[in-house]
């Protein structure tokens, strides 16, 4: 799934702003609130969690569905283009309707999803867009929620008089399985974007290095080459999306990498905008002579741009030339660059867990976390303290023969 960008072939319509909003009273789905304007609606900002936007306890403590709604008018000059509705994140589960017809469902609150609406809206005329969000969490959601058992710090211990009194006072509420507040709603932007009829659906770039040259393996997925039957808008009853890839399941497999009815062209531009390499075809490998590598600061995070052209469509994506090497030699080089930021947990001479950390000159990152089977991992130090016999936390560099640990945690 490509990030929406405006260029000579594509337009983006931002739907952020004030929307009509209602907390579900338990009848919203059965009474089909999506089929008309929401009654007794309040105004609320999108994108943002609804929990903190009103000085009302029912907003803060709501558990279940909420409904967002607004009128959408696609400009008349978009006629002849494909139209896609994209939600960057709706927490935690979502239902999406246009003029009362279900066009998409999605599970998971932290990845984008989209659906083609070309056949659902008429440019120049208004349509009613309704999005319902369900904030309930359980053992099968991320973040993990509670299902009637003990919650974080015993906040849902059954049978304790003070706990039972608090539960009765607060009413139905999500019980967390760890220390967090379940902020929910349309938490990231909502947009409509356009593409030509034959369009670039997805782009994959895998950079590498060969001596002083850069190598870029690429794969371009296209759409619109033939009549496609796989859009959520065409099969609303099956319009289900999954957190795994953010795409509508009914559309999976519809993308094409076979070069039909026109060629895919790809150009590599340097930071000054000059073309340094070209290729033709939906997949292949491009060599960039004497490539400048991306380096973390204080080095130069140098970026190239891949420009993909397919018929009338064009899409540009920046990238850096660097490698990700998880071989022993690659890990050794990583540890030399980051000698004090990674740790391993050792029990009876056996490594049972590790955290591989590094930085780009400004920000630290977790690159890899691994725990041996049979060990519950909360944090490295809780992990080490909870085990018997005692477990030691040592610098990861020191755990490899030939490495010295300068500052073990």
Compact overview of the structure:
The protein is mainly beta. The chain is built from four helices and 24 strands.
Task: State the main characteristics.
4 helices; flat; 24 strands
How would you explain this protein's 3D organization?
The protein starts with 11 loop residues before the first strand and ends in a 14-residue tail after the last strand. The C terminus is likely disordered. It has 409 residues and is mainly β. Strand 16 and strand 17 form a beta hairpin. It has a seven-stranded mixed β-sheet with strand order 3-2-4-10-7-8-15, with no helix packed on it. Strands 1-12-5-9 form a four-stranded antiparallel β-sheet, with no helix packed on it. The protein has a four-stranded antiparallel β-sheet with strand order 17-16-19-20, with no helix packed on it.
What structural category arises from helix and sheet content?
mainly beta
Low-confidence stretches: 229-261, 377-391, 400-409
Counting DSSP E segments of at least 2 residues, the number of strands comes to 24
- The succession of helices and strands, N to C, reads EEEHEEEEEEEHEEEEEEEEEEHEEEHE
Tell me the strand order in the biggest sheet. 3-2-4-10-7-8-15
What is the count of helical runs?
A: 4
What's the mean pLDDT score? Answer: 81
Shape: flat
Q: Report the sheet with the most strands, covering strand number, pairing sense and barrel closure.
A: 7 strands, mixed
| Strand fraction | 35-45%
Roughly what percent helix?
Answer: under 10%
